[in-house]
Amino acid sequence: xxxxxxxxxxxxxxxxxxxxxxVQMIAEKLNVTTEDVEKVLxxxxxxxxxxxxxxxxxHLVWDVRDVMNNNIKxxxxxxxxYTYLKGEKEDYWFLR
Length: 96
Description:
The structure is a single chain. This protein has three helices and no strands. The model is unreliable at 1-14 (pLDDT under 50). It is 41% helix and 0% strand. With 96 residues, it is mostly helical. It has helices at 23-30, 34-41, 52-74.
């Protein structure tokens, strides 16, 4: 699978164009596969409301956001607001 630059995934409205990380770089930082990251960027959640995979996916969404935001801040910029993620992970009881 060809590694895509996270800033080039234009179909993902929640991704800031200020991030300089590739999907592969994000995957390496989080110790997950590039496929996992691409699913997060496309917001392709696994089926099943109570599945362990869904809970893992939800946490990974926030982790990917945090990695990207840290990169953007490290570049001296401010991350753009996200379509799906508001506030912080700790604000949601089901993510604790």
